Amino acid sequence: MVFFISWDEHGQAIRKAAKGEIFSRCASLARVLEATPPALQSDILNASNTSSARYWISANGLKDAPAWREEAWERLAQPLPRVSFPGHSAPVEARPDFVRNSASSSSATSSQWIDLKPGAWPLSRPAKFLYLDDSTGMGLAVQLADGAWLNTAFAKPAQDGFWTSQSTVTLGLSALLLSIIAVFAARGIAQPLRRLAEAAEALGRGQEIVPLPETGPDDIRRTAEAFNRMQARLHRFVDDRTRMLAAIGHDLRTPLTSLRLRAEFVPDQEVREKMLSTITEIQTMTEATLAFAREDATAEATRTVDLSALVESLCDDLAELGYDVSFSEGTRISYSCRPDALRRACRNLVENAIRYGERARVCVERRADSIEIIVSDDGPGIPDSAKEQVFTPFFRMENSRNRETGGVGLGLSIARTIVRHHGGDITLINQQKGLRAAISLPPLDSGPPPNSGPPPIGVRVTVAGVKDNINALEPATRSVST
After folding, report:
1. What's this model's pTM, rounded to 2 decimal places?
2. Between β-strands 53-58 and 149-154, what pairing exists: parallel, antiparallel or unpaired?
3. What are the pLDDT digits (tens) for 379-438?
4. Inter-CA distances, 155 with 64, 75, 133, 137, Å
5. How far apart are CA 180 and CA 182, in angstroms?
6. What does the angle CA 468 – CA 383 – CA 432 come to, to the nearest 5 degrees?
7. CA-CA distance, 449 to 428, in Å (whole number)?
8. Contacts of 456 (CB under 8 A, 6+ apart)
9. What whole-number distance in Å separates Cα of residue 26 and Cα of residue 49?
10. Of 482, 470, 284, 469, which is closest to residue 389 (Cα–Cα)?
11. 169 near 55, Cβ under 8 Å?
């Protein structure tokens, strides 16, 4: 489209230049004719004729536009005599180079003379102008001082049309070259953006990625630099918080041990038992904090596993221990994840279902926009107002804090943290009988990015789960539930 617009503007510019040239030549010739004797005018006109222009004088007045146009074409069709030189053969008449466009001239026949005011062309007298055809053919007539009319007809020699074999090949090669350049330019922009999108998706699923190459156009390079800085800051943030929590949990051991020793010397047995029970509860929570901090500092690489087989093996292990757990077999689903962490999240949900819902029914389903691991039980469910609160660390629906009836309140918090590390979430839905807990994982159309690898020690981060990773702490050696 741009090419054709440019071509049209080019044609208009040529036509405008030719028009200005005709005006200038006609005005100059009119001045020369008025300054010379009438006997020399015929020779001057013949000397002024060119292959594309003819000049003649009408002593009987100016004809109407159609008749003048026909005369102009006749004069333009007449060949010009060649110049003879001494010692050479006689001059040969030169045939005209242009071909009259009958269709264009017939369409222009209906047009009449256009009056040119003195300011519209070089002379300070009016003139008459018309178009011979729809291309570059033009005619001009101006009255001389003696009353005769000087006529000028102009038409460019016929040229080949635009769509010649040479122009077509040239245009095709130019388009091919520009297309190749555009493809390489587009790849230079699209490839870094695709790499950035894959890295952001991997970071959102808790995978560790190497820093992106900071190359390409300025905007792409600055975006990659900002992404690398963001990833480094997140790593430092989580690493510092994990070490801080581990240090706090470790430092709590000494005062707890001292409190236990002093409680042993309390003479009142009832008071002593209450104090020891409270200290034991605090110590249990402290041990859970330390255990989770130690586990969080251990890196687990992402790899592709059979998700159905992973969940089924967990259910089989719990069933062998005497728990009422059943697994409904479905299609095999290959999934890229951190298997040990995901297995732990599923175990927490299954143990919750067993503890509070008598039994657990587990299945894995592939949906249009997600992959779901569903754990259903036959328990009383939970109030709608507590569906979000149960994911809070150390929150328990059972307020007695009895270790025989529940854990320390980290099971669901840890499970949701792990699932969010994988880019998913956990939803709890009350059914007619029991509770339905569903782990929703994003579908993976491909494996992890090529530059993904195991994270450094002490670093496991996602944008969505930074706060959960800080708050969710639990022993590594056992699963505890809400």
Report:
1. 0.50
2. antiparallel
3. 888 888 888 888 887 777 765 444 455 566 778 888 888 888 888 899 999 988 889 999
4. 19, 11, 9, 4
5. 5
6. 115
7. 32
8. 208, 235, 299
9. 11
10. 482
11. no
Do 27 and 150 contact (CB within 8 A), yes or no? Answer: no
Query: From its phi and psi, is residue 461 left (phi > 0), alpha (psi between -120 and 50) or beta?
Result: beta
CA torsion, ordered 164, 167, 172, 173, to nearest 10 deg: 140
Cα–Cα distance measured from residue 369 to residue 102, given in angstroms and rounded to the nearest whole number: 68
CB-neighbour burial class of residue 163 (10 A; exposed 0-12, middle 13-18, buried 19+): exposed
- Burial class from Cβ neighbours inside 10 Å (0-12, 13-18, 19+) for residue 479 reads buried
- Cα 50–Cα 54–Cα 56 angle in degrees, nearest 5: 135
Q: How far apart, in whole angstroms, are the C-alpha atoms of residue 313 and residue 319? A: 10
Please enumerate in sequence order all residues whose Cβ is within 8 A of that of 198, keeping only pairs 6 or more positions apart, or say none.
Answer: 449
The one-letter amino acid code at 455 reads: P
Written as six digits, the tokens of 425 are 């979430």
Q: What is the pLDDT of residue 448?
A: 42
Q: How far apart are CA 176 and CA 219, in angstroms?
A: 28
SS3 405: coil
Q: Which residues contact 223 (CB under 8 A, 6 or more apart)?
A: 196
Query: Who contacts 361 (Cβ-Cβ below 8 Å, separation ≥6)?
Result: 326, 328, 375, 376, 377
343, 314 contact by CB (below 8 A) = yes
Q: List, in sequence order, every residue forming a beta bridge with 366; answer none if it has no partner.
A: 371
184 exposed, middle or buried (CB, 10 Å; 0-12, 13-18, 19+)?
Answer: exposed
Contacts (Cβ under 8 Å, ≥6 apart) of 183:
none
Please write the tens of the pLDDT for every residue from 255-281. 888 888 888 888 888 888 888 888 888
CA angle 161, 164, 169 (to 5 degrees): 145
Helix, strand, coil % in the chain, rounded to nearest 5: 50, 15, 35
DSSP sequence for 86-140: TTSPPP-EEPPS----HHHHHHHTT---EEEPGGGSSSSS-EEEEESSSSS-EEE
> Which two structure tokens, joined as six digits, stand for 229?
């800085």
- pLDDT computed for residue 474 by the predictor: 37
How many Å apart are CA 250 and CA 245, to the nearest integer? Answer: 8
Instruction: Give Dmax (Cα) for the chain.
Output: 151
